Amino acid sequence: MNILVLNAGSSSLKYQLISMPSQQVKCVGLVERIGMDDAIFTHEKGKQEHNEVCPIPNHTVALKKVEAALMHADYGVVKNVDEIDAVGHRVVHGGSRFTKTVMVTEDVKENIRELFALAPLHNPANLTGIEVAENVFKNAKQAVIFDTAFHQTMPQEAYQYAIPNKYLNEDEIRAYGFHGTSHKYVSEKAIEYLGEKSKNIITIHLGNGCSISAIKDGKCVEHSMGLGPSNGLVMGTRAGDIDQSVIFHLQKKFGKTAEEVNHILQKESGMKGLTGHSDLRDIGNLAAEGNKDCINALNLAAHRIKKYIGSYTAILNGLDAIVFTAGIGENSSLMRELSCKDMDWLGIQLDNEINNTRAKGILEIQKVDGKVKVLIIPTNEEIEIAKQTFDLLQES
């Protein structure tokens, strides 16, 4: 079965065509700068790569480019669009209603639309991707995989805020959690790898967006993000956890509007606010040269991660393994080292030599006598989306 995985952003479109159940990736691609005359289209089939700069005014044109590339005589992977059996869509926010992958219906689309306010940068683009794909790939089954679904197993004491009950009961204001597709994928890989020694796991997704989850017996019981994907760990441009008094202070003392404060916390904070840079590679290099702001930012980010590891270990009543994943989690030995430093009391002891090793697949980086397994597991959200889509179709 050929499953096209789509991840539609506000001005971008990522895709992969994956053969299931073998999980063979037939091609990958990316459309950037949608809405511009100099949009960038990239399509890769094995070692073949096609690059093109051209006007792509909207997502419909973008998906038409994808359709043409999939059937291209030189670098295409199918002869006819009907060879694509299903399309799996990533949708960031599904609210409390969706706990698993579902087929696209008018009701599902309306629910995604109702949640625009909670994920204004993501859900509108996700819905556009679905509606356009329905027209371009008319005979393919359309499925939706929600980033929030994996976290719907959190107990009420984990997802409810201590504000008047009516805001939960009537308005569904609560913690939902994000990066669920990634946390689900790597936690299942960890359980498969560790076997019986995988009861209590903490998964740490570190990229431009960062989040951390507590996994007990394969189910999420705590997560660092909440109503929206902005709180918790220090991120590339997002502040993460912050005292709400800071928000009111910025408004009252500096005359900032709510929109301006939101922009500061979402776009000008995190590592960018602390250092002027959002790319951890630049920050790490500058820190090595003695830049005090960058050194401070790395320590601050690691301190926040350690706080969560400690609190989640308490929630789990023990800890068997920690998993680092995503761009920074998989590639930054420095961030992993700082996050595990002085955690011996929890049984976390990093082997720095192994930690600096680059390896594909799952890698253990704890010392031989370390009680807690520390793993690097590369995430693959596209494979997870294809897997969930395939499983849903097998059930129906």
- Oligomeric organization of the protein chains: single chain
How many strands, which pairing sense, and closed or not: the largest β-sheet?
Answer: 8 strands, mixed
Number of strands: 14
Helix count? Answer: 15
- Beta percentage is 15-25%
> What is the topology, as strand order, of the major beta sheet?
5-4-3-2-1-6-8-7
- Rg result: 21 Å
Average pLDDT confidence is 93
First-to-last CA distance:
15 Å
Question: How do the SSEs run, as a string of H and E?
Answer: EEEEEHEEHHEHHHEEEHHHHHEHHHEEH
Q: Helical proportion?
A: 25-40%
Instruction: Identify low-pLDDT runs.
Output: none
Structural class determined from secondary elements? alpha/beta
Globally, the shape reads globular
